[in-house]
Automatic annotation (TrEMBL):
Cofactor: pyridoxal 5'-phosphate
Family: Belongs to the DegT/DnrJ/EryC1 family. L-glutamine:2-deoxy-scyllo-inosose/scyllo-inosose aminotransferase subfamily.
Domain of life, source organism: Bacteria
GO MF term list: transaminase activity
Designated name of the protein: DegT/DnrJ/EryC1/StrS aminotransferase
């Protein structure tokens, strides 16, 4: 097995431009005001902190912004994913297909809800789930296809919806298309619809690093399925008197801030896209690096700015580049993300015998240097310069043959 890049130790404390774990948040006076308002109105024992009205307003605004009938808040994207999968009541042997390059969260949610995780390859350009490989992985036991809009590049969901219709489960009908949009909030898919509007259910995260954040934690599900929305609401509040449930509520203060962040989402995304496009332009002459393509049929939100080193640098050369960037230039970068089964032991155990060589190879060439909409032109120039120099440094040691 190749080395697991997630375990390569990298000191991040000294970095001038860090990536993980601490990044994110862009709050203005409007967010501060919203918090103060919630504080003032709740600081009365007769009112208290019950979130119902505020979260309801946030949910309605979110549903309207994505063009869906329902939006349901959760305390995190992880619990939201888990509850959507829980609704399916997966039985042993029921399969859920998902891309091998992924955040571990969606894969753990499948495992946690008793499903068999079936891994498929990514598209080499977008790292989104590959349609052809998904078709190969479909069986009569497939209950769901879990598609992550990878790093802000919205996937085209139409071919997956068609695939699902063509391969219905004998009991449950077409596999559900579940979308993980934790990294693509506010985006549009190639069909021109808002992320969140296509597929059976879409999960969003408002964790600190995400495109909008509700005090560093929070999640949302959008769906047009009234039955799913109703069940999700009872799952997060103790089962609504007749079924199992627990407490997974977002707080009132989070919802109040979420409402402001939602109104500012396009502005924040535009700033990020602008910085990403400038970075792509600035790095255009660095022959060793494959840059993210610029699409015209969809909006790429650049949750990350993906760079790929030459094949001959895969693994060691890429790690070296990340280390030089960090140690000599203070630029943090992250492999976003490694192949989940190499980085997480439980996922590896539950996918024994499955390999995705294309995903492994791409992940070994991938690095995502720090990008944030609040970076100044000076930050950006320094980071691009660092990437150029660090790449030259590694090229001298590794050669430049792709
Ligand atoms: C952040 C993230 C999640 C989980 O969201 P949390 O709110 O942190 O639980 C799920 N999937 C992807 C792709 C993510 O990036």
């Amino acid at each position: 097995m190749p080395t697991n890049p997630a375990t390569v130790p990298r000191a991040v404390a000294h970095l001038r431009w860090p990536v993980e774990p601490a990044q994110g948040g862009w709050y203005t006076e409007a967010e501060h005001k919203a918090v103060r308002r919630v504080l003032a109105e709740s600081d009365d024992w007769r009112t208290g902190w019950k979130p119902a009205t505020t979260t309801g307003v946030f949910e309605d605004a979110f549903a309207a912004s994505t063009g869906t009938a329902h939006a349901v808040t959760f305390n995190s994207g992880g619990t939201a994913l888990e509850m959507v999968l829980r609704y399916l009541q997966l039985m042993p042997g029921d399969e859920v297909i998902s891309c091998a390059i992924n955040f571990v969260g969606p894969h753990l949610a499948v495992i946690g809800q008793g499903g068999s995780l079936v891994l498929a390859e990514p598209d080499p350009l977008t790292l989104n789930l590959d349609v052809v490989d998904t078709e190969r992985a479909l069986t009569a036991r497939t209950r769901a296809i879990l598609i992550t809009h990878w790093n802000g590049a919205a996937a085209d969901l139409r071919p997956f919806l068609t695939l699902a219709e063509r391969h219905p489960h004998p009991v449950h009908g077409p596999p559900r298309v579940i979308v993980d949009a934790a990294r693509c909030c506010g985006g549009r898919t190639p069909s021109g619809r808002m992320v969140g509007a296509e597929g059976w259910a879409t999960v969003f995260s408002f964790e600190s690093k995400k495109l909008m954040t509700t005090f560093g934690q929070g999640g949302m599900v959008t769906t047009d399925d009234q039955t799913l929305a109703d069940r999700l609401r009872t799952l997060r509040t103790y089962g609504g008197r007749d079924q199992w449930g627990t407490n997974q509520m977002m707080t009132k203060a989070q919802a109040a801030v979420g409402l402001v962040q939602l109104a500012r989402l396009d502005e924040m995304n535009a700033a990020r896209i602008d910085r990403a496009h400038r970075r792509t332009q600035r790095l255009a002459r660095v022959a060793e690096l494959a840059l993210p393509p610029t699409w015209h049929d969809r909006q790429h939100l650049y949750y990350r700015h993906n760079l790929f080193v030459p094949a001959s640098w895969a693994g060691d050369g890429r790690d070296k580049l990340m280390n030089v960037l960090a140690e000599q230039y203070g630029v943090g970068s992250v492999v976003s993300d490694p192949v989940t089964y190499l980085g997480h032991r439980l996922i590896r155990h539950r996918t024994t015998g499955q390999r995705c060589p294309r995903a492994e190879h791409l992940a070994a060439r991938l690095l995502c240097p720090c990008l944030h909409p609040r970076m100044t032109p000076g930050d950006e120039a320094a980071i691009c310069d660092a990437i150029r120099r660090a790449t030259e440094h590694v090229a001298r040691a590794h050669g430049t043959t792709a």
